[in-house]
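Fold it.
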Amino acid sequence: MVGPHAPQEVKDAWMEAAKEVNANGAGIKRNGMMSHISQMMVQRCNKMLRGETDYSDILGSTVGTAIRATKQHCTIWIILWRLRIEA
Protein backbone atom coordinates (compact mmCIF):
# COMPACT_ATOMS: atom_id res chain seq x y z
CA MET A 1 0.00 0.00 0.00
CA VAL A 2 1.34 3.42 -0.88
CA GLY A 3 -0.48 5.16 1.94
CA PRO A 4 0.02 3.21 5.16
CA HIS A 5 -0.53 6.36 7.24
CA ALA A 6 -3.27 7.86 5.05
CA PRO A 7 -6.79 8.30 6.41
CA GLN A 8 -9.28 5.56 5.64
CA GLU A 9 -11.05 7.87 3.16
CA VAL A 10 -7.87 8.04 1.06
CA LYS A 11 -7.25 4.29 1.31
CA ASP A 12 -10.84 3.57 0.21
CA ALA A 13 -10.52 5.97 -2.74
CA TRP A 14 -7.24 4.30 -3.72
CA MET A 15 -8.77 0.82 -3.66
CA GLU A 16 -11.86 1.89 -5.61
CA ALA A 17 -9.67 3.54 -8.24
CA ALA A 18 -7.48 0.43 -8.44
CA LYS A 19 -10.52 -1.75 -9.14
CA GLU A 20 -11.84 0.67 -11.72
CA VAL A 21 -8.64 0.86 -13.77
CA ASN A 22 -7.38 -2.68 -13.06
CA ALA A 23 -4.11 -1.30 -11.66
CA ASN A 24 -3.16 0.28 -8.38
CA GLY A 25 -1.68 3.65 -9.35
CA ALA A 26 1.81 2.28 -8.91
CA GLY A 27 1.47 0.49 -12.25
CA ILE A 28 0.85 -2.96 -10.79
CA LYS A 29 -2.14 -4.93 -12.06
CA ARG A 30 -4.25 -7.33 -9.99
CA ASN A 31 -2.24 -10.25 -11.35
CA GLY A 32 0.94 -8.72 -9.88
CA MET A 33 2.48 -7.74 -13.22
CA MET A 34 3.61 -4.20 -13.93
CA SER A 35 1.61 -2.44 -16.61
CA HIS A 36 4.03 0.49 -16.74
CA ILE A 37 6.56 2.32 -14.59
CA SER A 38 4.45 4.97 -12.93
CA GLN A 39 5.58 8.25 -11.44
CA MET A 40 4.48 6.86 -8.08
CA MET A 41 6.91 3.94 -8.50
CA VAL A 42 9.68 6.38 -9.48
CA GLN A 43 8.98 8.43 -6.35
CA ARG A 44 9.17 5.32 -4.18
CA CYS A 45 12.46 4.29 -5.79
CA ASN A 46 13.90 7.77 -5.27
CA LYS A 47 12.98 7.60 -1.57
CA MET A 48 14.66 4.20 -1.28
CA LEU A 49 17.82 5.50 -2.98
CA ARG A 50 17.94 8.45 -0.56
CA GLY A 51 17.87 5.95 2.30
CA GLU A 52 14.41 6.82 3.58
CA THR A 53 13.02 3.92 5.56
CA ASP A 54 9.33 4.61 4.98
CA TYR A 55 9.54 4.78 1.19
CA SER A 56 6.05 3.37 0.68
CA ASP A 57 4.40 6.33 2.40
CA ILE A 58 3.97 8.67 -0.57
CA LEU A 59 0.42 9.78 0.17
CA GLY A 60 1.18 11.13 3.64
CA SER A 61 -1.17 11.13 6.61
CA THR A 62 -3.92 13.53 5.55
CA VAL A 63 -6.31 14.06 2.65
CA GLY A 64 -4.32 17.22 1.88
CA THR A 65 -1.00 15.41 1.52
CA ALA A 66 -2.68 12.78 -0.66
CA ILE A 67 -4.08 15.52 -2.88
CA ARG A 68 -0.64 17.11 -3.25
CA ALA A 69 0.82 13.72 -4.19
CA THR A 70 -1.90 13.06 -6.75
CA LYS A 71 -1.49 16.49 -8.29
CA GLN A 72 2.16 15.64 -8.89
CA HIS A 73 1.33 12.30 -10.48
CA CYS A 74 -1.55 12.24 -12.90
CA THR A 75 -1.46 8.42 -13.14
CA ILE A 76 -3.73 8.38 -10.08
CA TRP A 77 -5.98 11.32 -10.91
CA ILE A 78 -9.02 9.14 -10.32
CA ILE A 79 -8.36 9.25 -6.57
CA LEU A 80 -9.15 12.95 -6.65
CA TRP A 81 -12.43 12.16 -8.37
CA ARG A 82 -13.19 9.50 -5.78
CA LEU A 83 -12.55 12.04 -3.00
CA ARG A 84 -14.79 14.49 -4.93
CA ILE A 85 -12.10 17.15 -4.86
CA GLU A 86 -11.22 19.18 -7.95
CA ALA A 87 -7.59 19.16 -9.06
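DSSP finds four helices and no strands in the chain.
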